[in-house]
Amino acid sequence: MGRKWNNIKEKKAAKDKNTSRIYAKFGREIYVAAKQGEPNPESNQALKIVLERAKTYSVPRSIIDRAIEKAKGGDDENYDELRYEGFGPSGSMIIVDTLTNNVNRTAADVRAAFNKNGGNMGTNGSVSYMFDNTAVFGIEGMSADEILEILMEADVDARDLIEEDNVVIIYAEPDQFHAVQEVFKEKGITEFTVAELTMLPQNDVTLSEDDQEQFEKLIDALEDLEDVQQVYHNVELD
User: Fold this and answer.
1) In percent, how much of the chain has pLDDT > 70?
2) Fewer Cβ neighbours under 10 Å: the N or C end of the chain?
C-alpha cells in the first residue's frame, strides 16, 4: 500500500541536504504546537508527535528548547495552518501544508511555484480525497513477523507492514500513533527511522523522464518556500 520505504528514505535524504531550512521549519512547527497547548509533550499530544518526528531528522536539542521556551514566554506571533492542493505534470497530485503569519503572501507564493513549474492549483478537496492520513513508523533490526507479534500481543492494529532493506515500515491509523509508539517503547525500542503522521497516496503514478524532471523542479520550488512545512505527492520517484 502507498509509498514504500525507498520513497520515504528518498524524501528524507533530499531534505537532509538542507538541514538549516529543515531546522527552521521544525522550530516553527514546535513553537506552534507548544503554544496551542501545554508546552509539555506529556500533556500535549500534538507537540509529542512533532518532537518524535524531529528526532528522526536529528534536529538539535537547542532548536527544540528555543522553540518551546519561545512559546512559554507568551510570544504573540500567530500562525495559520493552511493546506493547498494542486496538480503537477501529467495529472500528478500534490498536497502542500503550510504554517504562515501572512496568508496572502503564502497563497501567492504557492500559486507562483505551481504556475512557474508546470503545475496548477486545485480547489480544496480536489486532491486530498486520493490520500490517506496515516501514522508511519520505521524500525530497524527486526523482522515483520516479530513486529506483528508485538502489535498483536498489545492488541494494536496496523494497516500494513512492509519489510525492505532491513527496515520494517508500519502503517497505522493516525489515532494509533501513540499506541504504536508506546508498545515499542515498552519493549525498549525508542529509536525509529521514521515516526510521523503523513498523507500517503492511495495509488502511485510513474512519470516519463521529462515529466519527472519537471515534477522534481516543482516539488523543490514548493519545499523551498519559507511557509511550507510538508509536501506530499503520488509520484513514484526513481
Assistant:
1) 92
2) C
